């Protein structure tokens, strides 16, 4: 492979389990790793086993009283507060330990990059981007994205860029660093008027000396591969070039797919594959190749997430898969047993073409309006002309 890459994984991360009928089911991680192995993506790759994050690491982002609440929740009943015990964030056994392990996995991935052992590292179990300093939110107990970024800042990294391609706004990470000029947060997501958590407007740009460090591109329901790509390329490269991060962190939620049951964008597996390749290119161009990759949302557990994240692993490892690759029979046989009556795909493509027409300043489509609004909100704060399509 062209770049040294660390893959952080252990089956113990499947213990982050919010319950059998909860949308964030760990089967999606198990099926992804099985598919990646069946296709040879992980051949010769020694995975790193994580350890739980300790309180010092967690408290860079979360308040001590919140950690205490998470620890006590399994035995405290339904009066624990802090967003725990809700339908979105049900209490489960060993909740602190399981959540701290996911955060520890993201720290381990970050450590591999910061110490120079590798250029890239991936933790598919991570990406729990909604958790706030003092409460759980959106299926997320501890915000491993923010914890890993805070760890890097505490260990000598001066500028970190975070790009979130989950269909939901990366609100927890934005909140953690909204006034910190050392961290650039970029989120492409379904428009907050149409999807939880209701934040992520283009006008949210950071505060104080960090004005311009938050970039939001809210997209209308139905946004296709080509439209998503046009929005991404019309804004993200320009702000990254201006910011010049030392490490690029990406949250790669798979829920912008058209089959995802919790949202309304219309991307394909092919479009998501193209987005990961674009992120890889940006890491090379603007972050010296230093790229920390995290998972995130994704609730089409059997048909979408395993294929999308296998493409993600292949991209990070420079082992790009032909979209026409047939899914191995061994994986299909296992998936049939766990998926029940869900019809399964037979190849690594949705048959879509993710090619796009670059933005040219014309705003005759809702996505182009979103591009215009995002560019006008944030590019001047980076000294860039929002009307110049070259920026």
TrEMBL record:
Pathway annotation: Ketone degradation; acetoin degradation
Phosphoprotein is among the record's keywords: no
Pfam families noted in UniProt: Hist_deacetyl
InterPro entries, A to Z: AcuC, HDACs, His_deacetylse_dom, His_deacetylse_dom_sf, Ureohydrolase_dom_sf
Keywords, alphabetical: Acetoin catabolism
Gene3D superfamilies for this protein: Histone deacetylase domain
All residue ranges annotated as the Histone deacetylase domain in the record: 22-315
Similarity field: Belongs to the histone deacetylase family.
UniProt-recorded name of the protein: Acetoin utilization protein AcuC
Native organism: Saccharopolyspora taberi
